[in-house]
Design brief:
16 helices; alpha/beta; Alpha-Beta Plaits; 3 domains; 17 strands; 25% strand
Length: 416
């Protein structure tokens, strides 16, 4: 089954308001086996709405979903336009009026005529009370399709999608099973990976699709299987991942989770290891990634953002003379940061980062895009150099964060 999403609102087109609804709806539909064929954003103009609805109903989509334009103000024209499109009329829905009245009374407000108009709905539409707002949701069957009209307020739409729309679709329609599995691939350029996997990919069963999802220097390969027999789908996905593992070998990090922090957390906790972090270029991003996962306190001791040389000297106790000799962005400083960090936090393992994210260089005139990741473990220190001269500042920080986590994985988890 397929769906067409129409986002209605001049505020979206102007860029003043970010459209989060279509992304949320598409994800939720995808999870139950409904593919989104198109997402369109249009103005509140009635002619634009009629034209887009006409196009959507002429397509082979099973569901047409709109968001926005259901409010009480004059610029919210969707409901009347929908009635016109359906050759229908707006009538008072008493259930909706009672709900709105109760909502206003509870909050100590007086309901005006514009708010009362929220209870006017097309006579052919099934009304779903929006318990998070005053604009009801409309569910209309026409020409073997379902038109679903949702408000534009994100928290209202998203809550109602979860609580009512998705359960209603699942109840009323026979949907396919979907099985998804992802693997993480590192140290493999996307084009080289595609060439390596060409033969394997060309022999995938018709019911399995593959997506390449790059994130910096890391790539997630997502396999999705859709069909009527869940057991067959799961076996097929498992079989293909086993083939992938034999092809990619050490470049495939995990076939169980796409979150490398989960792998690290599990390993450190089970092996009674502790971790601390000294960050310069990554500015606390590694610590954020680690602590975002619940339970990190079982192995993570803490971190320091030693962004300036003075902090490296005063807190990490790296002598100024040592920094002057080797420069802040160097293998030696990365190693010493990791070594001092382990001592400061009394951790068995420590990771460090130093580099230049740009846009300008540092006091030593090192090139933008240069970075080092240091690691301390078992009384030894290691460092790896990275150079990404043609990426943005945000991308540089993201890549070095990923490389630091991968260094922990390859040096410690993989070599257990």
């Amino acid at each position: 089954m397929k769906a067409y999403i129409i986002v209605i609102g001049d505020e979206i087109l102007s860029g003043r308001t970010l459209d989060t609804n279509s992304n949320f709806i598409a994800k939720k539909l995808d999870q139950i086996g409904i593919s989104v064929s198109q997402i369109s954003t249009i103005s509140d103009n009635p002619n634009s709405i009629i034209k887009k609805l006409t196009d959507a109903f002429a397509s082979d989509n099973d569901f047409i979903i709109t968001t926005g334009g259901l409010g009480p103000t004059k610029d919210d024209r969707t409901k009347q336009t929908i009635a016109n499109f359906l050759c229908d009329e707006l009538i008072l829905n008493q259930k909706t009026l009672d709900f709105i009245t109760k909502l206003y009374c509870t909050n100590g407000r007086t309901m005006n005529d514009l708010t009362k108009k929220q209870a006017m709905v097309p006579s052919s539409s099934e009304v779903i009370i929006n318990r998070y707002g005053t604009a009801p949701i409309l569910w209309t069957k026409k020409f073997n399709k379902v038109l679903i009209n949702l408000p534009g307020v994100p928290y209202e739409t998203q809550a109602m999608i979860d609580e009512f729309i998705i359960p209603k679709i699942k109840k009323e329609y026979k949907l396919p099973y979907i099985v998804r599995r992802s693997v993480i691939v590192v140290n493999y350029p996307e084009s080289d990976l595609a060439i390596t996997l060409n033969n394997w990919e060309s022999h995938l069963p018709d019911f399995i699709s593959l997506s390449y999802l790059p994130s910096g220097a890391r790539i997630e390969l997502r396999l999705s299987a859709k069909g009527n027999n869940k057991e067959i789908l799961e076996k097929a996905i498992t079989n293909e991942i086993e083939k992938l593992s034999s092809i990619l070998k050490e470049n495939l990090i995990s076939a169980q989770t796409t979150n490398i922090v989960e792998i690290i957390a599990d390993f450190f906790t089970k092996n009674h290891l502790t971790l601390s972090v000294a960050e310069s270029i990554t500015g606390g991003n590694i610590s954020h990634k680690i602590t975002y996962l619940a339970g990190s306190s079982s192995y993570y001791k803490g971190g320091i953002t030693a962004y300036s040389s003075k902090i490296k000297e005063s807190i990490l106790q790296i002598p100024e003379s040592y920094i002057d000799v080797h420069k802040v962005v160097s293998e030696e400083i990365a190693k010493e940061m990791a070594n001092k960090c382990a001592s400061l936090f009394n951790s068995t393992v420590a990771i460090s980062t130093t580099g230049i994210a740009g846009p300008g260089s540092d006091e030593f005139n090192d090139p933008v895009g240069l970075a080092y990741v240091g690691l301390y473990m078992n009384g030894k220190t290691y460092a790896t150099k990275y150079y990404y001269p043609n990426v943005t500042r945000d991308e540089m920080i993201s890549r070095i964060t990923n490389k630091a986590l991968e260094m922990i994985y390859f040096k410690i988890v993989k070599n257990k």
